[in-house]
Amino acid sequence: MKVRRNKKQIPSFRKLIKTSKVKLENKLKNKQFKQQSTLKKYRKEQRKLRQAVKDAVSKKPIPLEDPREKQPGKRIEREEEEEEALPLDMMDEDDLQLMKDLGQRPSFLTRDLSSSEPVHAKKRKHERIIDKYEKIPRTLQTAPEKELIHLLPIKDKSGIIPQTREKPVTDSNKDEEDQEAARELEEEIIEDPIRELTVEEHLIERKKKLQEKKMHIAALASAILSDPESNIKKLKELRSMLMEQDPDVAVTVRKLVIVSLMELFKDITPSYKIRPLTQVEKSTKIRKETQKLREFEEGLVSQYKFYLENLEQMVKDWKQRKLKKSNVVSLKAYKGLAEVAVKSLCELLVALPHFNFHNNIIVLIVPLMNDVSKLISEMCCEAVKKLFKQDKLGQASLGVVKVISGFVKGRNYEVRPEMLKTFLCLRIKEVEVKKDTEDINKPKKFMTFKEKRKTLSRMQRKWKKAEEKLERELREAEASESTEKKFKLHTETLNIVFVTYFRILKKAQRSPLLPAVLEGLAKFAHLINVEFFDDLLVVLHTLIESGDLSYQESLHCVQTAFHILSGQGDVLNIDPMKFYTHLYKTLFKLHAGATNEGVEIVLQCLDVMLTKRRKQVSQQRALAFVKRLCTLALHVLPNSSIGILATTRILMHTFPKTDLLLDSESQGSGVFLPELDEPEYCNAQNTALWELYALRRHYHPIVQKLAAHLIAGAPSEGCEALKPELSRRKMSNTREKSIRKF
């Protein structure tokens, strides 16, 4: 009898990749269900067969009816005929006995052929059942089909070789024993229920568990710090505690492990980037110390990578509000874990800009700068600012600026203004300084052999050679970054920043990002190419005249325009009178309440417009601004009044002819027009600074001193001169610090 073998097709590698986990589970369930149903059918058929055989054996054959009992006459005649037909004398005793035995059994000889009733109907019925089951093909009891587990395939020169492994079969008897033991254990538990802990006992137990976990974390961290190369494997043990499953201490332990690993990586990470080894380097023989160092570097990089992946997963879980199957950490606790994870990422972004996976951290941090949570957004923005300030070379800054620019463009310029304000912390000004010093102090050129032979003797050439060798070694020992490389990085960074700014000016003029853009242009205006100056000034003037900007935004436009003109724009023949007129007209729109937000920008604009451009400013314009500033000082808060009066003092020193405003008896042509918006034609020379006499009676002591100082003509010596602590302080900071002191 042939036995069918189930030949399982080995799935291809592509099919394994395409088949999902859910499909594999469904296939396994269907297969198990078919096996169970086939086994049930087989058992049912065997049960029926056994029952039929038992019935056939147990029941006795039914004797046939004798038709001669109904017709006694015929029966007698037939007996006589038989006696005549069969002479018994001629038969042996054995044959006679056999015939008698056959006569006692029911057979076709004793059957009444006239009767239509089937005599052996019941017997035949049972025989048919037995025959039916006999005809069924018998299946040999083979070993149960073994289930296979598909493993990852192996790629060889010949191709892809699928790998499988037999699934271990559990013994049913052992399972039954285990189930019985579990039932007995459940019964015992039900009989003796565990006493519930009170709140105080639960807290004491939690505190005890937490202390044990803390000691374990501290022991692992101390061992790693003491000898990182030997105990690098303990990093994995410490990282595994990020999956703490005890619901009482899971959240706290995970936070502690995150912070501990962050500090460990900051301490044990080398000051260079670890690259993967080539095949040649792996095959070469090396010393034990070198091999130990390589193992340490490989383990460090792998554990650092897994750690960053864990932090990323925590942030994603919080973002998706996705509850894990284990239910160890609640949805509310996800936010706390995410905040600690983001804080660790920010620390690593600033502390390890040279190490592996720094670009991956940038890609994680930049989207979080625009997060809905204000705490996380501020945390990420501060980390990026700190990175910009400490990055001397510019490599890390370039990576961050690229990602921010792409993110802003991808979001269609609908992001937080704080993202663009981080550009203000870039150290781009250092490029120009380094470039100038490089032009002035050009690198020393060594003499060629021909020049030495012409000008120097043999002994001098020998000394010169030794001297040049020493200079080269000293230059290499300085380990200072190449100025050309730094210049290229800063130039590329600045180009990306300006592209972002110009896109917003062109496409999103009503965006809340405009103040940050204008502030950035004001800071980096001296680095803009001169070819763009005309177009940029036209755009700024159009923005001011449109009336869609707020007061601060218009001030930023003015500040940007004058920063452009004060740098490389000096060579251009551009008259910025319209910007002077706008600032003079809008000075009285300054907020006089508690905010005082625009005062600092106004003072910076006045410094750029009047003080730094003193040669291009007329006397009429300077007199008009001094008069309007003194009037403005009467309306604002004391801290703003101090800053305005200090700026007026600087203007009086810069333009000495403004002292005619202190003389009330001087006469001029025309009448002062305070409501006129044109500073050139308001006739400011025909008025006096009577506001200073009112400010001399101000309740704030510093305002009184400054007013009296200005009335006396702002002398540098004498009783009306200012103290050094006031005269040397920057005017933008004077208004902030004066109230704190007095």
TrEMBL record:
Regions of compositional bias (Acidic residues) in chain numbering: 79-92
InterPro entries: ARM-type_fold (IPR016024), CCAAT-binding_factor (IPR005612), Noc3_N (IPR011501), Nucleolar_cplx-assoc_3 (IPR016903)
Domain called Nucleolar complex-associated protein 3 N-terminal: residue spans: 213-307
GO molecular function annotation: chromatin binding
Major localization class: nucleus
Gene Ontology biological process: DNA replication initiation
Ranges in a coiled coil: 449-483
GO-annotated cellular components: nucleolus
Pfam families assigned to the protein according to its UniProt record, in alphabetical order: CBF, NOC3p
Subcellular localization, as worded in the UniProt entry: Nucleus, Nucleolus
Keyword set, alphabetical order: Coiled coil, Nucleus
Stretches with biased composition (Basic residues): 40-51
Record keyword Coiled coil present: yes
Keyword Nucleotidyltransferase: no
Domain CCAAT-binding factor: 554-707
SUPFAM superfamilies: ARM repeat
Annotated Basic and acidic residues bias: 52-78, 162-173
Region described as Disordered: spans on this chain: 28-92, 162-181
Family in the record: Belongs to the CBF/MAK21 family.
Protein name: Nucleolar complex protein 3 homolog
Organism: Callithrix jacchus (White-tufted-ear marmoset)
Taxonomic lineage from the root: Eukaryota, Metazoa, Chordata, Craniata, Vertebrata
